[in-house]
Specification:
Layout lengths: L2 H26 L4 H27 L5
Helix pairs in contact: 1-2
Length: 64
């Protein structure tokens, strides 16, 4: 079992969840500045988790 690849998959799933959460809340809000700042934070964190997870999965070599 490759721990890096598993952690990369977990980060990817968390990133996708964060991006979906941001999109759902963005479509359901009427638009306050406080809400938008929080959504930007969630979106950026989701994007960072997603990109980091994809990078870990892609760059980790399979060792049998």
């Amino acid at each position: 079992m490759n721990l890096k690849r598993t952690f990369g998959a977990l980060l990817t799933i968390l990133g996708i969840g964060g991006l979906i959460y941001t999109a759902v809340v963005f479509t359901n809000t009427s638009g306050g500045t406080r809400d938008m700042k929080l959504l930007i934070v969630y979106g950026v964190l989701g994007l960072i988790f997603f990109m980091t997870g994809i990078s870990l999965v892609r760059n980790t070599k399979d060792e049998a």
